Prior knowledge:
By secondary structure, chain A is of the alpha/beta class. Helices cover 35% and strands 21% of the residues of chain A. Chain B is built from ten helices and two strands; from the N terminus they run ααααααααββαα.
Amino acid sequence: MKFELETLFIEEACRTSRLATRVLAGLPAQVPVHYVADGRTAALRSGESADPFGAGKRRMVLMRRRGNFLMGCPAGSTEFACCGYLVMVLASNCPMDCSYCFLQEYVADNPGLQIYANYADVFAELDRVRGGSRERALRIGTGELADSLAFDSLTGISRELVEYFATRENLLLELKTKTDEIDNLLQVDPRGRTLVAWTLSPEPVFRSSEHRTASPAARMEAARRVLAAGYKVAFHLDPLIAYPEAERDYARLLENLFDRIAPEAIAFISLGGLRMTPGLRTAARNRFPRDPMLLGEEVLAPDGRYRTIAPTRFRLYTRLREQIARADPQLLVYLCMEGASAHQRVFGAAPAAPATLGARLAGV
Amino acid sequence: MSGTEVEAAIRAWAAERRLPEAHVARWLELPASERTALLELAQTLHLRTGQFVTIFTLLKEIGVRENQPIAEVLTRREVRNIFAANESAPGKARALLEVLRAIRFPQLHETLAQINARITELRLPEGVRVVLPPNLGSDEVRVELTAHGGAELKRLVEAVTARSAELGRIADLLGGADEV
């Protein structure tokens, strides 16, 4: 899968970086290249487009990251039962265009597709974090503010990451994607320390909402291939969209998945219902007014987000959890961005502490 | 009316009701039949500005959800019944809002009806109230007791205790349990 770019901006200070060299070598000849003093200005929202967020997706900016690369998962909150996930911010925004994506609000003011040329500095940060918690396994991913593999054929960053993590026993790398860009991964040995996770949705959601992504079948096939190459695999059924046929379609999706990949070979499956802040809901509906998946039975929930009405949402979680348990009772399932009461309803038990769940997920 | 006359009538109605320009623009973007149907609706029911905006939004969302033009949504039996009823224009407007909300949120409507029926069947004494979360946005159920004096409070607590199994089933329905 290759994505179209309209322009490439390179920050002057990154002109001779490894990343710029690799990207320039692989960039189609027709894409114009501009050098700028400060990449941040090139990443800003442009008022010239009717859809500045969409336009940002076609404008790649290679620049330095000024702040830390590591952060806690932005979805984390004390009101939710979290999974202790750590995020490496190596890029921002994504060339795919899912109608429900939180980036439409989160990076609305700087939607340029930023990739940080000084990404190798993250290894020093990782060493520090690792030094501070040798007793505890940590799961660290790159797929929160960007798709982990969307531009990997151009940047080649995944290979360096996989090689770094291959020798760090208490760290697990999670690459999260909706692509089938796995060629680089197949060139390196992860030694069990990299997990590749795919977001999966039923066909109607894929067709209606997940623009420019690989099909669910292609994602599963890519998962099968990386599994054979020694990677761990996991799946995020997130967002779960409760459209009228959702129970049937998600059940079929899981059947399909387990037909292709033995449930015993899957590290974990996360479930997360569609949730949208009022700002995201407005942005998403303005950009995708004809997408029925954005017009489900979402109501304002106590956390200030629009969520599917509780009975429908919890029933869908429970059905899927039961189906997964029938396939493999040991297969780890967790809920994303849900509170303790949802866990109690779905699993019949209080959620584990974030550090405990995080360590379990990192040690899978 | 010709297209020009319909547009003029829409603008006149919108000016009188001080309908924000963004909504006027969206109204005028509709295909001719839908534009006209909406104008007739607004005029017949003497819609207030807020009512119009809500109804317009609901109609558009139903149209996208069910892949149906607004004009067709307005020909549904439950909507036609409202227009046929012997009711004042404001009464019809309120009824239309309720019907459109039920069409737009069918599971919410059905689940609420089911749970409210269960609550009614409990025949709770005055002073006991089961409070459901707004729009079923969460699974929290609250039981409120309002008493004046120890004897009354004791009576209400006993009434709730006697119905605890059924109240528990209502709480489970809120959490997605099947009909129990």
